Amino acid sequence: MTYKTLKVDVDGDGIALVTIDVPGKSMNVWDADLMEDFSNWVDSFLADDKVKGAVITSGKASGFLAGADLNMLGSGGAGRGTPSTTKEQFESAFTLNSVFRKLETGGQPVKALQNGQAFAKPVAAAVNGLALGGGLEIVLACHHRVVADNPKIQLGVPEVQVGLLPGAGGTQRLPRLAGLQNAAMLATQGKPIDPATAKAQGIVQEVVPADQVVAKAKEWVKANPKVAQPWDKKGFKFPGGGGAMDPRAVQFFIGANAMAQKETNHNYPAIQYILSCLYEGSIVPMDTAIRIESKYFLKLLSSAQTRNMIRTLFINKQAAEKGEQRPKDVPPTEIKKVGVLGAGMMGAGIAYVTAKGGAEVVLLDRELSYAEKGKAYSQGIVEKGVSKGKVTKEKGDELLARIKPTENYDDLKDVDLIIEAVFEDPDIKADVIKRTEAVIGKDVIFASNTSTLPITGLAKHSERPDQFIGIHFFSPVDKMPLVEIIPGEKSGDKALAAALDYVRLIKKTPIVVKDTRGFYTNRVVPPYINESMLLVTEGVKPALIENAAKSLGMPVGPLALCDETSQELGLRIAKATAKETGQDPSGEPVYQLLVKFVEDLGRKGRKSGGGFYDYPEGGKKHLWKGLQEYYPLADEQPSLEEVKERLLYAQLIPAAHCYAEGVVHDPQSADLGAIFGWGFAPWTGGPMSHIDTIGLETFVRKAESLAQKYGSRFNPPEKFREMAKSGDKLYKKAA
Q1: What is the 3-state secondary structure (H, E, C) of 374-390?
Q2: How far apart are CA 160 and CA 491, in angstroms?
Q3: Global pTM value
Q4: Distance between CA atoms of 552 and 555, rounded to whole angstroms?
Q5: How far is CA 580 from CA 58, 583, 663, in A?
Q6: Which of 232, 231, 477, 300 is nearest to 377 (CA)?
Q7: Gap between the terminal Cα atoms of the chain
Q8: Which residues face 445 on adjacent strands?
Q9: What is the pLDDT of residue 537?
Q10: How many whole angstroms separate alpha carbon 722 and alpha carbon 701?
Q11: What is the pLDDT of residue 83?
Q12: Which of 193, 210, 320, 332 is deepest in the core (most CB within 10 A)?
């Protein structure tokens, strides 16, 4: 029998070497073809008496198997066709569980295995690279597991990160091998472990040199002609004690559930379902346990939340990073050397990520000492990485050698790309543009990292506006994953293509946005922070504001975020906006609060030592107790749900306006920008996904209600009112 995705070679001892190699993929994944081929091979393997055992390995240097094809799961399926009835949907979700169970039992009755009356054919996994999700689950279903001795190999079940759970036996075999606590840590956190840790936990049996994995696996198969999994033998007990009825396990489940909900604020059903799988599965036989797992897997797979998360956090993110919005007819830009103008916080960060991406960097500032200080930022990151074992000293030294500090514009003469990150002043930027264009090559693209100034205006200072574009990074550059690409009115396709090629080089997630003041993220984040400050002026408890945001799933509270971005910056932007629009903001409560904090109290944000929080040296930050002296608490406090609603819609409304005005051109860019730009609650899949999930009619009705109660800032865009009336959706096709 021939297979599309498997190569099967049987040696003279009757041992089949099964090599997984999915064509057209850089990494093996469980797609419909592999699922069909593997199922057919298992049937053939069990039926052929000449084949005594098997070793499963990968034919790809990139790794063993990276799990399920999320593009397939994102459409709600787990195999070929579209199941219609609930029973068909369950059987589809149960497909891999069924195949793996057949493989590990050899198709024999469990009672016969338990009594030693029958045995399965031995199957060993020879793992030569990363095995994640369904990739690790096939390894767990094998009777013996040999992994290459490489600490960079990742073994794990990361499904929770896209709102799913391990659905091919992972929640059942892991606790039976490693114990309930280790299994819960792996499955609820989704973080991978290395081979040595996996062996210490009992998940794999051997860690050997890479060139020996197949030979060692075959050696074991030859030596063990009759096998059964530990859990299929009479008297099996979970490592560390019994199942859920064991007193030690009871204490574990009480603590694990409480800790999980504290961390997730009940926003991630996948974590609750994983713990349910561990609990329920531990008190029933394996055949029942895997059906319980598939039941919970199907519940998640069929939920809007999981589909939203898969679509945004995987499918659309991957598409953006592969250059979905890149002009197709422009040849790739070869970026070997990049000129970074300005060695402040942003320029220093840009220099680091560029050098990390493999390009040389000319880091220019008006004085050499400033440029050297900018390089020192990279040195600090490298030294920290070396001390933690994340990077070797040799690799770190190579990265630093790629950064050349300078104050001489002539050093820019042979760069392939310019990124300007000087002070946000049009005159300073104009001078830098002219001095740079005087020395760089005629075809070099000039990108400005500006967060507020329109690109079209800056491009007027360029002699080649078609080669001028905006690349907006977020601080700190080395940690923030999003980059906004902003074409100006005259930016050409070559400029856009080069910008996206560069972002791919540094492994960030790009979105292309319209050239307007604040672009996308800086159009949405200020209203969100402003709403929190307005709540302060109304006498709402600061702790209630912060906790409401965290319970929404935001990484930090908006008052803490305000401290990070600084009240000083907020006041500066407010004054600049007033100057531009001609409006007087002096009567607005938020403006008055910013003036009080910055000009009267000197509480300008975290960098100045204090804002809404105090930052004691060597201690933990805490909300500033003196705030009540200036903004006394109201006698009647709003409910948690009321505050959550205001903070949520303070983000949804401006995001909706940006989409309606074409600032972001599609819902997927709006969702990616929100989650990866300012940490909008990932469990929603992003603001546009969330609006679709609750329904546009519900969204519009709630927005109008908030506008009546709190002000016109909550009014929804007219476009959304029209879409609500017509029953339209932002995402035209269901994910």
Answers
A1: HHHHHHHHHHHHHHCCC
A2: 41
A3: 0.88
A4: 9
A5: 61, 8, 20
A6: 477
A7: 36
A8: 417
A9: 96
A10: 12
A11: 60
A12: 320
Strand 445-448 to 468-472 pairing? parallel
- Are the beta carbons of 67 and 135 closer than 8 angstroms? yes
Q: Which pLDDT does position 734 carry in this prediction?
A: 47
- Say if CB 723 and CB 696 are below 8 A apart: yes
DSSP state of 35: H
Beta partners for residue 127, in sequence order: 147
User: Percent helix, strand, coil in the chain (nearest 5)?
Assistant: 50, 10, 35
Task: List all residues 6 or more positions away from 174 whose beta carbon is below 8 Å from its beta carbon.
Answer: 140, 157, 166, 182, 183, 186, 187, 203
Name the amino acid, one letter, at 108.
Q
Determine the pLDDT at residue 261. 78
Mean pLDDT within 53-75: 86
Peptide bond into 667 cis (omega under 30): no
Q: In this predicted model, what pLDDT tens digit does every residue of 486-532 receive, in sequence order?
A: 999 999 999 999 999 999 999 999 999 999 888 999 899 999 999 99
Distance CA 530, CA 507 (A): 32
Closest CA to 201 of 189, 185, 214: 185
* Residue 500 falls in which region: left (phi positive, over 0), alpha (psi -120 to 50) or beta: alpha
What does the block give as tokens for 383?
């030294």
H/E element holding 445? strand 445-448
| Residue 205: closest CA among 139, 150, 114 | 139
Contacts of 194 (CB under 8 A, 6+ apart): 151, 152, 153, 154, 155
Task: Tell me the pLDDT tens digit for each residue of 565-620.
Answer: 899 988 988 887 788 778 888 889 999 999 999 999 999 999 888 999 999 988 89
What is the DSSP annotation of 54-88?
Answer: EEEEES-TT-SB--B-HHHHTTT-SSSS---SHHH
DSSP H helices in 357-508: 368-387, 393-401, 426-437, 455-459, 493-505
Helix (H) or strand (E) holding 705: helix 696-710
Distance separating alpha carbons of residues 229 and 236, to the nearest angstrom: 10
What pairing do the DSSP bridges indicate for beta strands 6-10 and 15-20? antiparallel
